[in-house]
């Protein structure tokens, strides 16, 4: 069932993890000049001119964490100038995605700047032209063949852009642009003061944690620990840890921030980031936490229905449901990818129209697969690992067949998930020293996954169910029959029952557990085989 993995000691593990980084770590001082972003200086000159001439400036963001973070950074920067900035985040349900005709209908302005959206907004660009509005698009998504006729576009993925590191999120593009604007207007603003929000955006948007992303997240997590920003204080109080990891953000904070745009309105998350008092930030965070609980319930119901539709023989999963909540289909797609190890597209149907989200696996470029079948779609956009699509419900069957035909042409190796196991760790090696060794290679995330280890045919000594609803399991195991020392595994959201043979094989990660100022090693089950 499971191939025998080598037994690692600390020295072997250190060597293995060191191989992930073939060059010296990038420092903040080595972040490439923002002026290398194609059209960035042109955009900044136009923004500075609008400020000097007291023109009305409107910002249009997006409803995910990256879009809200981008908007929050821009709002904070403009408040430090100070200069009035109208910030709009479209409502997923009423406005649709990005700078749309719906949004432009209610704007009276001289200049529109987009963050984390706009690269496909051809209709919006035409409306802006008709209204005499200058449109500056800043985005990081893959550009389509025909670009919007905007005043200018700043996107590292434009074919002519020479910015040396292209895998950056929307908030990074906005932050780099603001660094240029600071220089243009000769402002005394510390660009490091935004790194707490920027780190959250990079982690939440699953950017590869290598190169400048690694440097920004490392420093951003430090900034989060010392920032006087009310939202950062609330995050620190909530997590209650001596240091915050990228996984704390990915699993505890990002879902809460995302829940606002998924279920209600992303302005709730924006008001959290931009709160000027701890009281206001706390109130917004409480709302986000409640919405996140509702999101979990909505997602669980949708996932259950989606699982029943899956064609396990298909190369790529496409499922659709009448009135599935548009806000959770992306998470449901991720659940299907985890469960079946295949790319997945989950569609919500309303009045003959299907809108949905796609998630990928391994090296499969979901954007390119979708683009190859765009003749069956009304709209699409995204990047290699995640995308959004829109189509008529009557075309779902044809699209499913066509995209599976495209996926069948790919190398089967492309579908192998990246979360390979690194090996097994001897019981005596699992201690605080090992925990410290692992911490040296943080932050963990995309392109630098936290190491996953294998336990194979271990003896199950005892099982305890944890939590108010007894939905988590603490499994005491003995790795080798001759050992006296046992290990405790924690399996969240899993009710594990004693197997007939009293054996368990699973993968797990090693994490720090802090409780009552005491630090201990915690083994978290990833997958039971």
Rounded to an integer in angstroms, the radius of gyration calculated over CA atoms is 24 Å
* Count of runs of 4 or more consecutive helical residues: 16
Q: Which secondary-structure class do the elements indicate?
A: alpha/beta
CATH C-level name of the largest domain: Alpha Beta
Fold and architecture overview:
- Helix content is 38%, strand content 20%.
- By secondary structure, it is an alpha/beta fold.
- It folds into three domains: 7-12 and 419-528, OB fold (Dihydrolipoamide Acetyltransferase, E2P); 31-287, inorganic pyrophosphatase (n-terminal core) (Alpha-Beta Complex); 310-415, Diaminopimelate Epimerase, Chain A, domain 1.
Brief description of this entry?
The chain has helices spanning 10-18, 40-52, 65-80, 101-105, 122-131, 170-184, 195-204, 211-226, 230-239, 246-263, 267-273, 278-309, 329-340, 366-371, 396-408, 432-439, and strands spanning 7-8, 57-60, 86-88, 111-115, 134-138, 152-154, 317-322, 344-350, 353-359, 379-382, 386-392, 424-425, 453-466, 472-478, 487-491, 503-515, 518-528. With 529 residues, the chain is an alpha/beta fold.
């Amino acid at each position: 069932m499971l191939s025998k993995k080598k037994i690692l000691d600390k020295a072997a593990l250190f060597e293995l993890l060191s191989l992930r980084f073939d060059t010296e770590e990038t420092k903040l001082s080595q972040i490439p000049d923002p002026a290398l972003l194609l059209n960035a200086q042109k955009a900044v000159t136009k923004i500075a001119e609008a400020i000097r001439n007291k023109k009305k400036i409107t910002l249009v963001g997006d409803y995910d964490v990256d879009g809200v973070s981008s908007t929050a950074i821009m709002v904070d920067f403009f408040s430090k100038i100070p200069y009035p900035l109208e910030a709009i985040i479209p409502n997923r349900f009423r406005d649709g995605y990005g700078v749309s005709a719906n949004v432009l209908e209610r704007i009276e302005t001289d200049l529109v700047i987009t963050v984390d959206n706009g690269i496909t907004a051809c209709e919006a660009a035409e409306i802006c032209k008709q209204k005499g509005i200058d449109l500056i698009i800043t985005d990081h998504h893959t550009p389509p063949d025909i670009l919007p006729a905007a005043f200018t576009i700043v996107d590292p993925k434009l074919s002519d852009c020479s910015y040396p590191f292209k895998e950056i999120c929307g908030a990074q593009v906005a932050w780099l642009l603001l660094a240029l604007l600071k220089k243009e207007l000769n402002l005394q603003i510390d660009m490091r003061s935004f790194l707490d929000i920027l780190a959250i955006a990079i982690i939440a948007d699953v950017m590869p944690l290598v190169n400048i992303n690694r440097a920004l997240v490392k420093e951003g997590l430090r900034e989060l620990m010392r920032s006087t920003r009310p939202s950062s204080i609330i995050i620190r109080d909530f997590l209650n840890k001596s240091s915050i990891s990228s996984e704390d953000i990915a699993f505890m904070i990002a879902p809460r921030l995302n829940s606002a745009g998924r279920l209600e309105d992303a302005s709730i998350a924006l008001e959290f980031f931009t709160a000027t008092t701890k009281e206001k930030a706390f109130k917004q965070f409480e709302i986000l936490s409640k919405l996140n609980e509702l999101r979990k319930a909505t997602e669980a119901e949708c996932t259950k229905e989606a699982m029943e539709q899956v064609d396990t023989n298909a190369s790529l999963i496409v499922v659709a449901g009448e009135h599935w909540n548009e806000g959770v289909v992306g998470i449901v797609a991720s659940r299907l990818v985890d469960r079946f190890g295949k790319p997945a597209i989950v569609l919500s149907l309303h009045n003959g129209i299907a809108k949905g989200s796609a998630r990928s696996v391994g090296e499969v470029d979901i954007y390119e697969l979708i683009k190859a079948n765009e003749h069956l779609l009304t709209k699409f956009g995204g990047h290699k690992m995640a995308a959004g699509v829109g189509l008529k419900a009557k075309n779902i069957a044809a699209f499913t067949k066509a995209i599976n035909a495209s996926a069948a042409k790919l190398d089967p190796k492309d579908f192998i998930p990246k979360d390979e196991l690194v090996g097994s760790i001897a019981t005596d090696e699992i201690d605080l020293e090992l925990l410290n060794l692992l911490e040296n290679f943080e932050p963990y995330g995309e392109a630098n996954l936290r190491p996953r280890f294998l336990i194979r045919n271990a003896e199950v000594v005892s099982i305890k169910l944890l939590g108010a609803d007894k939905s988590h399991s603490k499994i005491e195991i003995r790795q080798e029959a001759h050992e006296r020392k046992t290990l405790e595994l924690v399996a969240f959201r899993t009710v594990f029952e004693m197997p007939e043979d009293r054996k368990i094989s699973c993968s797990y990660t090693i994490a720090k557990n802090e409780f009552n100022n005491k630090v201990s090693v915690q083994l978290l089950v990833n997958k039971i085989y």
